[in-house]
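[step 3/7] inverse_fold.run input=structure_tokens len=216
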């Protein structure tokens, strides 16, 4: 294997420092909020000089936006898992109930992850200052989740397993049955999320209530 040249080594060191800075900044933003986090703190926690931070990022706003966009971009793997569940072959009402339960449970688990809750809390707190970033977060997270559910409901409706006149509304209702109370509680009471058995109970109840309204 060829040894890395000076240019490649320099790029590697730069990438490492950039990662150190973004990791430290994310932890500080989540813990202290945007306004109470300084570039001095970020540099100290990252183990780099303040000049290095400013060499990578023009200002705190730029750093915050890049971090938030990067974190929301990591939602792809969760959506891939939800899509795989939603695309499970369904031919009977019982199949549909089981699939909805699995979809509800994975959806709940994803949103109840502490980093997800912390970032959502932070984005909401800074939405007035960063409206475009808040919009991006919504589009990449909650909206894509609703799009996925709506697509699955449409397919099941076409199979004759559901009768929902407004699929977007039905998707929103399913999402709230799954997330509503638990998410509200977790956002206001940090660290308090449903235990596994309770999550299973919520998922089953959400599927049952949804099918009671729209199942054929």
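[step 3/7] decode complete -> sequence:
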């Amino acid at each position: 294997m060829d040894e890395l040249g000076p240019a490649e080594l320099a790029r590697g060191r730069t990438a490492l420092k950039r990662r150190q800075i973004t990791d430290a900044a994310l932890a500080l933003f989540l813990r202290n909020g945007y306004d109470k986090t300084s570039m001095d703190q970020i540099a100290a926690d990252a183990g780099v000089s303040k000049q290095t931070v400013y060499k990578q990022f023009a200002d705190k706003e730029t750093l915050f936006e890049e971090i938030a966009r990067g974190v929301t971009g990591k939602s792809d793997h969760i959506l891939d898992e939800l899509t795989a569940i939603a695309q499970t072959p369904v031919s009977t009402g019982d199949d549909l109930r089981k699939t909805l339960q699995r979809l509800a449970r994975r959806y709940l688990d994803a949103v109840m992850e502490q980093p997800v809750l912390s970032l959502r809390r932070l984005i909401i707190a800074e939405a007035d200052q960063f409206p475009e970033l808040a919009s991006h977060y919504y589009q990449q997270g909650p909206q894509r989740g609703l799009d996925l559910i709506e697509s699955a409901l449409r397919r099941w409706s076409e199979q004759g397993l559901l009768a929902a006149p407004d699929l977007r509304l039905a998707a929103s209702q399913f999402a709230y049955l799954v997330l509503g109370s638990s998410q509200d509680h977790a956002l206001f009471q940090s660290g308090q999320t449903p235990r596994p058995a309770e999550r299973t109970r919520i998922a089953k109840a959400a599927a049952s209530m949804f099918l009671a309204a729209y199942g054929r």
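[step 4/7] annotate
The chain has two domains: 6-67, 74-214.
Residues 74-214 form a domain with the Tetracycline Repressor; domain 2 fold (CATH 1.10.357.10).
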